[in-house]
TrEMBL record:
SMART domains: HDc, RelA_SpoT. In eubacteria ppGpp (guanosine 3'-diphosphate 5'-diphosphate) is a mediator of the stringent response that coordinates a variety of cellular activities in response to changes in nutritional abundance. It comes from Pseudodesulfovibrio profundus. This is GTP pyrophosphokinase. Keywords: Kinase, Transferase. The keyword Repressor does not apply. It comes from the Bacteria.
Length: 722
């Protein structure tokens, strides 16, 4: 376990005359507050804040941040208050602790809404002081390192949240080491089959490639020496998550990934970087389209470096990253290296000047702050945040020569909204490099873009199919929602009046007399119009609303037998919701499982209200979910799932040898996995690809079966298909 002197010694290496007493007092207070509490691993609870504080010291953060790391769980998990923290350790520490603390004492309609509000609070707090996020990232990193002691379902939920929010946030802050470790840990728990096979393959490749790495390093060191350039060269194998992403995006197997090795060259000056780039290109042939100059145009997280891929010795593709020592520090530690807590002058108290806002430093953070104010639904905020955080950037120019940074894959409509919301709303056409192009055209680095507007133009729902930025999606959805809400209210009145005539209720008069107002709070709505819109969007059936209205008006339950129609109503035909599912706010509804992602018990899921086909259940990470209308998404969770087979798609890559198909099928049968269908393909390299649709009880059974199949000799891969 980390000891307090290891933390204080670490702080002393980068701060002159540090306030070690503050850290010591925070340690004593935290140890007393958590005394007697143990973690799931069996370790004393104090080991967690100690590890968090050590990670913060390793990032070379100030004493207040390290102290906050030691205290970050005291307000949430003990009787300690923020006021007590402020009285004992000062407002600086108290503000950071308060920003990190979850808002668990508030009541929310679901865990998903609570999670969204926690993230929203974190975003607001970090806009004031970025150290809040630094502590939270250190907290999440240590929790991910010890996730093995949690139940499998909890592991996947935490890993999914980390992959969706915290790893991208670490990337945005330039915390490369934190980001890559979080991503690899997420892969370990979200796709254990992929993680295990990649780790094994990379270990074999690393053992075989060490001589090659040493050889390239020797060539580069000799090149630097001959040209009187001082620098350090080292090679590394890319981390597992980035390899997996490339395999998925390009449909490659591990054996088809040719640029697994990357070399970094750390130099003394900016001019040396470009000099070395020229030497590399003169020595080896560069791969077209693989050169990027992040020195001239830095990334949003302040990252600067020259990237190039060349055909190196023995025809191997190798990537070089060339940067100065200062750039390397920022690349590894991001904001922790760039942002020093000494803004108030030499000899003054460490900290921040009053009123300084970190949102002003980071354009992306300011953008999040802008559009989050427009989103009242926390789940929509989470959806937009995921969209904003994940993207790589492209850099394009306005007609005046100004640079606009947009996510990779952004279109001309995204560019229009980046200029101004009004320009986006009135966008009628676009020109790229002087040529008129369709609005869905994807932008590339260096494009010059001009937007053609029309005062009569309004946003189109079709734009949602191709826009990439959260700002564009938010504005378009706001307009579409306003129009569709009006239609939904009109539809609800028609449906309610029709049903009301059958059961003897004058709906128009009930609305006018204020009877509907009495139902608003009962259905968790803000107004009568909100309730009507929910009926129009099929969240509540007209009959359900009118049954409650009848009871409110007459003081007795509505007897439907007196008003039975000749034709059975659709809801009478509907099958009850599937056993083992808890669907928030909906009952007696037809449920089906999406074939695009085949969700299994034990993994995060969401529901989508379809038109005429009930509720469709999707995996939370299904690629189709991002294209759904937010108002038709439902919170769904597994609840004692029934023992029945669920379909899943798997892929097995093996050597093309006699008897392999039989061995694989027998192994699946031993694991009680039924094969529903399959197709097979032989490759020219002597391997075969076997794609199966199988039936399993839950996620654990699937991954156990894949692990057994992978253990068979001559099997190279056994994966679940998304």
């Amino acid at each position: 376990m980390i000891r307090i002197n290891e933390i204080t010694d670490k702080v002393s290496t980068y701060i002159d005359n540090p306030d070690l007493d503050l850290i010591q007092r925070a340690y004593v207070f935290s140890a007393q507050a958590h005394d007697g509490v143990v973690r799931r691993s069996g370790e004393p609870y104090i080991s967690h804040p100690m590890n968090v504080a050590y990670l913060l010291a390793d990032m070379q953060l100030d004493e207040a941040t390290v102290a906050a790391g030691l205290l970050h769980d005291t307000v949430e998990d003990t009787d300690t208050t923020v006021d007590e923290i402020e009285e004992m350790f000062g407002s600086d520490v108290a503000d950071i602790v308060d920003g990190v603390t979850k808002i668990s004492q508030m009541d929310f309609e679901s865990k998903a809404v609570q999670q969204a509000e926690n993230i929203r609070k974190l975003i607001l707090a970090m806009a004031e002081d970025i150290r809040v996020l630094m502590v939270k990232l250190a907290d999440r990193l240590h929790n991910m390192r010890t996730l093995e002691f949690m139940k499998p379902v909890k592991q996947r939920l935490i890993a999914q949240e980390t992959q969706d929010i915290y790893a991208p946030l670490a990337n945005r802050l330039g915390l490369h080491r934190v980001k890559t470790e979080l991503e690899d840990l997420c892969l370990r728990y979200l796709k254990p089959d992929v993680f295990g096979q990649l780790r094994e393959a990379v270990a074999e490749h690393r053992a075989a490639g060490e001589q090659y790495i040493d050889r390239v390093i020797d060539i580069m060191q000799d090149m630097l020496q001959k040209n009187r350039l001082k620098g350090v060269v080292y090679g590394r194998t890319k981390h597992l998550h980035s390899i997996h992403v490339k395999m998925e995006q390009q449909g490659l197997t591990f054996d088809e990934i040719y640029d697994l090795i990357a070399f970094r060259i750390i130099l003394k000056s900016l001019k040396d970087c470009y000099a070395v780039l020229g030497l590399i290109h003169a020595t080896w042939r560069p791969v077209p389209g693989r050169f990027k100059d992040y020195i001239s145009i830095p990334k949003a997280n302040m990252y600067q470096s020259l990237h190039t891929t060349v055909i190196g010795p023995d025809g191997e593709r190798i990537e070089f990253q060339i940067r100065t020592e200062e750039m390397h520090q920022i690349a590894e530690y991001g904001v922790a290296a760039h942002w020093q807590y000494k803004e108030v002058g030499k000899g003054a108290k460490r900290g921040r000047t009053a009123g300084t806002r970190d949102a002003e430093r980071y354009t992306w953070l300011k953008q999040i702050m802008d559009w989050q104010r427009e989103l009242s639904d926390p789940r929509e905020f989470m959806s937009s945040l995921r969209l904003e955080m994940f993207q790589e950037e492209v850099y394009v120019f306005t007609p005046n020569g100004d640079i606009k940074e947009l996510p990779d894959g952004a279109t001309t409509v995204d560019f229009a909204y980046a200029i101004h919301s009004e320009v986006g709303d009135k966008c009628a056409g676009a020109k790229i490099n002087g040529r008129i192009v369709p609005l869905h055209t994807t932008l590339k680095n260096g494009d010059s873009v001009e937007i053609i507007t029309d005062k009569n133009r309004v946003p189109s729902r079709d734009w949602l199919k191709f826009v990439k930025t959260a700002k564009a999606r938010t504005r378009i959805k706001h307009y579409v929602r306003t129009v569709e809400r009006s239609r939904a209210i009109s539809l609800a009145k028609e449906l309610l009046e029709k049903e009301g005539r059958r059961v003897g209720i004058n709906v128009q008069k009930a609305i006018k007399d204020g009877e509907f107002l009495k139902l608003v709070s009962e259905f968790n709505c803000g107004s009568v119009d909100d309730l009507l819109a929910q009926v129009g969007f099929s969240r509540f059936t007209p009959r359900k609303v009118l049954k409650r209205l009848y009871a409110v008006m007459h003081g007795e339950a509505l007897d439907l037998r007196k008003h039975r129609s000749k034709e059975p109503e659709p809801e009478q035909k509907a099958k009850p919701k599937a056993d083992g599912l808890n669907i928030s706010g909906v009952d007696n509804v037809l449920v089906r499982f999406a074939s695009c992602c085949n969700p299994l018990p034990g993994e995060p899921i969401v529901g989508y209200i379809t038109r005429g086909r009930g509720v469709t259940i999707h995996r939370a990470d299904c690629h189709n979910v991002n294209n759904f209308e937010d108002e038709r998404l439902l919170q769904v969770s597994w609840e004692g799932a029934e023992e029945k087979p669920y379909p899943a798609k798997i892929k097995v890559k093996c050597l093309n040898k006699p008897g392999m198909l039989g061995k694989i099928c027998n192994m699946l049968a031993e694991m009680e996995v039924n094969i529903d269908s399959g197709d097979f393909e032989s490759k020219v390299d002597g391997t075969s690809i076997l794609n199966f649709t199988v039936e399993v009880r839950d996620l654990n059974q699937l991954y156990s079966a894949l692990a057994k199949v992978k253990a068979l000799k001559a099997v190279k891969e056994a994966l679940r298909l998304s």
